[in-house]
């Protein structure tokens, strides 16, 4: 096998590595980051509602509840002195408004300072790997062109 054949083989190997490993990893990392951002947005919305309940001393809350596929809904009126908060793994805990606010604030801090930072770092690292491999591919292509 001559040098040109080896370079062509390496270009193919690196290209496959980018397309079959690094790109899917980047897509997965970006999807995971987006899910965390959506979770943060949901908790921020909940925090605003809880703050509104606490400030107005609201005892009942009226809303529309989706019963299926966003096509069927009904009006619901509920007591807000205690609400159920999803705390993970399918568990819901009944809390007062003040307890709920404390939990939501801690959860937001955790998501923003630890979870999101980790996911942003993963996206950054994967992007850097793709850039590095692309640089190697460019060098190999230039080497191949010099050989011709």
Structure commentary:
This protein is an alpha+beta fold and 148 residues long. The chain has a domain at 3-18 and 83-147. The chain contains 2 helices and 4 strands. The protein has helices spanning 3-56, 97-147, and strands spanning 60-68, 72-79, 82-88, 91-96. A two-stranded antiparallel ribbon has the order 1-2. β3 (82-88) and β4 form a beta hairpin. α1 (3-56) packs antiparallel against α2 (97-147). It is elongated, with a radius of gyration of 25 Å. It starts with a helix and ends with a helix. 5% of the residues are buried.
Report the structural category: alpha+beta
Task: Name the poorly predicted regions.
Answer: none
Give average pLDDT, whole number.
Answer: 89
Q: Treating each run of at least 4 consecutive H or I residues as one helix, how many helices?
A: 2
Terminal-residue CA separation: 16 Å
Whole-number radius of gyration? Answer: 25 Å
Based on DSSP secondary structure assignment, what is the total number of beta strands? Answer: 4
Spatial order of strands in the largest sheet? 1-2
Shape: elongated
Provide the β-strand percentage band.
Answer: 15-25%
Quick one: biggest sheet?
2 strands, antiparallel
Q: Would you list the SSEs in sequence order as H and E?
A: HEEEEH
Q: Kindly state the percentage of residues in helix.
A: over 70%
């Amino acid at each position: 096998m001559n040098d040109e054949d080896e370079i062509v083989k390496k270009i193919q190997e690196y290209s496959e590595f980018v397309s079959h490993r690094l790109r899917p990893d980047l897509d997965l990392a970006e999807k995971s980051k987006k899910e965390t951002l959506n979770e943060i947005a949901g908790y921020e919305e909940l925090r605003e509602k809880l703050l509104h309940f606490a400030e107005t001393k609201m005892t009942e809350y009226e809303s529309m509840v989706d019963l299926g596929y966003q096509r069927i809904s009904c009006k619901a009126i509920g007591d807000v002195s205690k609400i159920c908060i999803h705390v993970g793994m399918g568990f819901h805990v009944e809390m007062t408004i003040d307890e709920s606010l404390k939990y939501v604030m801690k959860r937001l801090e955790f998501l923003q300072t630890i979870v999101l930072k980790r996911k942003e770092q993963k996206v950054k690292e994967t992007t850097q790997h793709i850039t590095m491999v692309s640089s190697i591919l460019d060098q190999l292509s230039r080497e191949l062109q010099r050989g011709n």
